[in-house]
Design brief:
By secondary structure, the protein is mainly β. The chain contains three helices and 17 strands. The chain has two domains: 141 residues, no CATH class; 155 residues, no CATH class.
């Protein structure tokens, strides 16, 4: 059977060209961040930092869009269905408003679902000199994330995780800010972003849990249970930091009009790990591009990207892209 995935399939209709409706599976882009978007609380997939512009899967939803006539202000109402369990108790409700304030766009929204965390978000975008700046924030009552709270280092080895009910009354704040600079005349683009992850672990908790996991892995040796703990460690460490940053620079028409170069640097500032990915692309002919991208991982032995990559490693990606209409 072919592997087919539907990202969007929806129908639009309107009432007197004043109120606009959409029903179906569609991407709902609330956030304004490039690499991370804490305000993007509806989509089913997070941003892939290695391919930040890739289309992401959205949920089945019913949207009502009410533009304010004579302005560029907009109001949106959503009912979001759970594809795995379509029921009233699993249906989320959300609302968003957008306001144009001079050269700046302000967005604010709320999200509610009975069995998970309620969230409120705020976004702001606009120009500052030659830069386009963006910022967003999200406040969550409770968290949909399961936190590892304890790893037993003596038999029987167990991993204890929290439930949604354990932190239902806790507040979590995440935020991000960044910039984009583009010079079409020079064929140059730069994008930078900082992300504060309010659902990350404290440094003391992170180090303690990693040390406990490594103790159990060493004691188990080469057993299937040790492999399970390796997977658990990867799940614990991914996105565990509270401070992240990324920078991407691209130079098109480098040396020749058909060649471009770029550099992506991403780091977990909490533990000093990350990766550097330079790349070069050559447009061989129309609709066919050839690219080469080595990736250099850096960080200590017990840091996020070092653990996920299996140590300080270097990998090389060689690819060809065919594009066009068929």
């Amino acid at each position: 059977m072919p592997n087919i995935k539907v990202f969007e399939l929806f129908s639009d209709f309107s009432l007197n060209d004043q109120v606009f409706f959409r029903f179906g599976k569609s991407t709902v882009k609330w956030g304004v961040g490039y690499f991370w978007s804490p305000a993007d609380v509806i989509n089913l997939e997070p941003i892939n930092v290695l391919d930040a512009t890739a289309q992401r899967e959205g949920p089945i939803n019913f949207r009502v869009h009410i533009p304010v006539l004579g302005t560029q202000n907009n109001f949106y109402l959503y009912a979001i269905l759970d594809e795995d369990n379509v029921d009233f108790s699993t249906t989320a409700l959300a609302a968003k408003a957008e306001f144009l304030l001079g050269n700046y766009e302000l967005g604010t929204g709320i999200y509610y679902r009975n069995d998970t965390a309620e969230r409120a978000m705020l976004t702001l975008t606009g120009p500052v000199g030659n830069f386009d700046v963006f910022g967003e924030a999200m406040l969550s009552r409770g968290s949909a994330k399961s936190f590892v709270t304890d790893i037993a280092t003596t038999t029987p080895y167990t991993i204890t995780t929290s439930t949604k009910a354990d932190h239902r009354s806790s507040l979590y704040f995440s935020a991000s800010t960044g910039f984009m600079y583009s010079s079409p005349k020079d064929n140059f683009t730069a994008i930078g972003q900082y992300y504060y992850n309010g659902e990350g672990y404290s440094e003391a908790d992170r180090k303690g849990l990693i040390a406990d996991a490594n103790t159990v892995i060493a004691a188990l040796g080469a057993t299937p249970t040790a492999a399970q703990y390796q997977q658990a460690l990867a799940g614990l460490i991914y996105g565990s930091g509270r401070h992240y940053a990324a920078l991407s620079v691209t130079q098109d028409e480098f040396l020749t009009k058909d060649t471009s170069i770029s550099l992506l640097v991403l780091a977990n500032l909490s533990d000093g790990s990350g990766f550097v990915r330079p790349s070069i692309a050559w447009q061989v002919v129309d609709n066919f591009k050839f690219s080469l991208s080595p990736t250099f991982i850096f960080g200590g032995a017990d840091t996020e990207y070092s653990i996920l990559a299996g140590g300080d490693t270097v990998s090389v990606s060689l690819g060809a892209i065919v594009s066009g209409s068929f």
